[in-house]
Amino acid sequence: MKLIPVIMSGGVGSRLWPVSREAHPKPFMLLPDGQNLIQKTFRRAAALEGVAEVMTVTNRELFFKTEDEYRLAGGGAVAQSFILEPFGRNTAAAVAVAALQLQEVYGADAQMLILAADHLIKDESAFANAVVKARQLAAEGWLVTFGIRPEYPETGFGYIEADQDTPLAGGFKVNRFVEKPDLETAKQYLAAGNYLWNSGMFCFRVGTLVEQFEAYASDVLGAVRETLSRSRLSEGHRHRAITLDAEAFGEVPDISVDYALMERSQRVATVPCDIGWSDIGSWNAMSELTEADANGNRFDGEVLVHQASNNYVQSHGRLTALVGVENLIVVDTPDAVLVAHKDRAQDVKHIVSQLKRNGHDAHLLHRTVNRPWGTYTTLEEGERFKIKRIVVKPGASLSLQMHHHRSEHWIVVSGMARVVNDEREMLLDTNESTFIRAGHKHRLENPGVIDLVLIEVQSGDYLCEDDIVRFQDIYGRANG
Amino acid sequence: MKLIPVIMSGGVGSRLWPVSREAHPKPFMLLPDGQNLIQKTFRRAAALEGVAEVMTVTNRELFFKTEDEYRLAGGGAVAQSFILEPFGRNTAAAVAVAALQLQEVYGADAQMLILAADHLIKDESAFANAVVKARQLAAEGWLVTFGIRPEYPETGFGYIEADQDTPLAGGFKVNRFVEKPDLETAKQYLAAGNYLWNSGMFCFRVGTLVEQFEAYASDVLGAVRETLSRSRLSEGHRHRAITLDAEAFGEVPDISVDYALMERSQRVATVPCDIGWSDIGSWNAMSELTEADANGNRFDGEVLVHQASNNYVQSHGRLTALVGVENLIVVDTPDAVLVAHKDRAQDVKHIVSQLKRNGHDAHLLHRTVNRPWGTYTTLEEGERFKIKRIVVKPGASLSLQMHHHRSEHWIVVSGMARVVNDEREMLLDTNESTFIRAGHKHRLENPGVIDLVLIEVQSGDYLCEDDIVRFQDIYGRANG
């Protein structure tokens, strides 16, 4: 039987601001080991037995960025498909879209494995074993959850009560789902032994899932069918992408798969697991990935300390000094610094809400912005000038474009550029430069096999991103 | 009688790191009102009655920077002189050098007023009144201290015990100086009423001071005479600078004027003052210059808060977010962030010691470095490239120079540049650029009347400051 891991890459991770941002969310954050969660998740999924393809449900703005990560994770060996959402619409919608798609391509007997893009699983072989058990139960017609055996009385997760009187091969029938408990209740759950953390990972036979949706959440299924019928499919070699129609998708009920289906169905099972799972739900969870020193300090970056203990600092490129403080989280990024008490790590999300309310960019973007062709980083802005570092991927090309109000100086510091500047076309080698006058059509391209790095100095009276006229764009972007 | 304010600009202010650094010490720090202490001190000094000139004793590395500040403070109206130290040698040496110099130029009856460059005085007219009283006592042959009436039992200052049985016109004879007391003793001093904070400001008749040095610290005076005889004098219109001979100056005893003289002399008086004095001795003192909000937070910069109180943040250009923290000092600069508990503000100096021990630049320099001709700021460094913003003052010129290993691209973003590039000389207007090949002699000059701002992109295999050969330099700097 075919297995299709479905990576759900939806959330922003606003409790991990300022590193996690809307345009660079939690799955893309670098961990102390130099990898990110989405690469780890992809590799873990692709390594399972019997994988037909890896499907990803994500925001359409993250499509190119996600593809890049999979490429870096060695993704060429496995077929990939993408469901591209115009906006997040909760998990029932995402799971139902995936199910209908997979039923069409692989038939009702195929199995889907729902994974979160932003969870960490340390014991990958235990995970693979749990998947084997879950597939067996799914084949028998169960909707299978992965229940994490609790290590402490966590109050931030929902729990699954396993029905110990109904053992199944490799798991149990589920008695009920319970909401996040208070501490006292969580302690009782821990003592009882048959309560498990709800990890949000699932395994389904596609046909069973569609049937159960039909039975318990037919409104979701109907709206998703309508959305798919109006959506755009693009197909390539071992690659499929469906861009969901925004208007129809906006009509899908905004509900989680837990509420819509799992808590209602009578066919729910759980596979209890010890797989070293963490949802990296806050800076406290993140801090545990860095080893503590003798004073309980965990530092990812250059930190100097005078009588400070039990702090976590993440700072790349800038020095941090701590004097006489304890139990703090300090996270430093090029445009924002967070200082939070460890006991209040959950409240970081309130800062993100404030930024959104104020219309502040810092919830949305980093100084480095991803584009289909590479990245740009604004190094400095001042009156009448702006300086960017532009990295163009091998073979990639920016659109043929023109600016009315700004001139641009380009200096190649690494790699080779092919430049169209007005009527001329030229190759610029490392250490060479050119000047694009305002009003001149131009295009930048990397014809080489290594990254092209160039410094762009813009000068002019108006330097905003919206002063651009695009004439041709290989990524299908319209002007504006 | 002539009055010569002598501004002592010696200390680094390591408790105000990371804003205060060796090459940009406390007197140059911007206060929330947009001014700095050295400008305030200069203006306050120059505004006094009967000022013949303003003398400044400072490190020779800070000469141009200090002159720039005085120019901005409208310094053209008053004659200036500078004593340039090769290194700090405590206050007895600095005061004695000033005294001997002033005796030579103005004679024994001239009066000198010793001021610290890094103290804040809020009530300038009360200060001017106190100076009038002090001059009267100085004329009678007293060594006059300014005693600040204590507002609370401070344990960080030395105290002066006024002899209330010996009132003088405008002050008292001093009974004794006392070291920093413990809290209990400080409370007794406050209650007693005749104990005053030792502000480190003094007023002397030059001849009296030299006599007293002769009597109590003739070793200091002798070594300073020797230093002056070997030092270099440069004179211009209403301008005099003496560069002290390093070898001779190193032989002067390392002792404060308080120990060497004031605590020994029988001719010491004090003028009690209420002048709104603060030595801005720590980030706590600095924070009080910014108004508190309803939660006791004082913010100089863009700050977002979720349930945080009694914190101080200084951050220019970057967003700071505080979550659930209290009584913290957060100071953010382009290359370093400080997070300290308010009760431990004094301990910030230990971070500076650590930086020095580790040979880390962050105790010494900011990203923006002052030069006689203007400033440069390193915006970004990477493999094979470095980007600087260079500001050249009107009329100023960099040396004619050459680099072996790097090419430089210059782009003018504001103002006008005169450039020598190998055999050619040209004018570059705003938005124009040029390219200096490695091995080519070049010179950059600002022929205009506004600042020249340019972006320099260096590329090459070796980009350190020591790859420079200087051919001609109007500031007399040798190569290296």
UniProtKB/TrEMBL annotation, chains A, B:
Entry EC no(s): 2.7.7.13, 5.3.1.8
Mannose-6-phosphate isomerase type II C-terminal domain location: 359-473
Domain of life assignment: Bacteria
Domain MannoseP isomerase/GMP-like beta-helix, residue spans: 307-355
Molecular-function annotations in GO: mannose-1-phosphate guanylyltransferase (GTP) activity; mannose-6-phosphate isomerase activity
Keywords tagged on the record: Isomerase, Nucleotidyltransferase, Transferase
Pathway of action: Nucleotide-sugar biosynthesis; GDP-alpha-D-mannose biosynthesis; GDP-alpha-D-mannose from alpha-D-mannose 1-phosphate (GTP route): step 1/1
Keyword Transferase on entry: yes
Keyword Nucleotidyltransferase annotated: yes
Start and end residues of each Nucleotidyl transferase domain: 5-294
Family of the protein in this entry: Belongs to the mannose-6-phosphate isomerase type 2 family.
Name of the molecule in the record: Mannose-1-phosphate guanylyltransferase/mannose-6-phosphate isomerase
Species name: Geopseudomonas aromaticivorans
